[in-house]
Design a protein that fits this description.
The protein has helices at residues 10-13, 21-31, 33-55, 65-70, 95-131, 133-148, 151-159, 177-185, 194-200. The chain has 202 residues and is mostly helical. The protein is flat and about 75 Å long.
Length: 202
Amino acid sequence: MATQTRALPAAAQKSRRSEGVWRDAFGRLRRNRLAMLGLVLVILLLLAAIFGPLITPWPYYIQDTAAVMANSFKPLAPFQNPSHLLGTDGLGRDYLSLLLDGAQISMTVAFVVQIVVLLIGVPVGAIAGWFGGRWDTFLMRVVDVVYAFPDLLFIILLGDIPRPVDRPCDGRRVPGVRRHRAHLVGHRGTTHPGPATFAQGD
């Protein structure tokens, strides 16, 4: 059974000439209206995070107690006072200043996370892909373990790391001391009271 082929038009045979990776990517971005809207919002958020705390009439930590007292000790509602466009909390702190300061912290965290990803993820992936073999297997298994480790448990472990303190025997400052002390004191009177006695300091 013979197959019939038909020549494509000359216009279809011409391949689109690439203008560069970045130009092609930005061209696809411009053709996506939702992506452009998201880009504009991100730029506005970035500008607000950078310049917002510099133009706000109130520092985020200043308490305008006079305005709260004049409002019968109640927080100011949005647009109630021209000096506090978004109102205040119960302590008289300006909500707009708090919002812009929080945006600055959020953008800082976002950039730090991306920098950490570039400094750790890119070298590990490059080494695994370039050398292959055992290096690839070993590094990918390490990455799998990191991905599989529960985030909440990792945060708890970081919070339980002892910090340098002036009085190491103070249970209020050394993480886990009171918990371990209570556990060992519960075994007092058993056949091995030594650790409990040592933990209590008798």
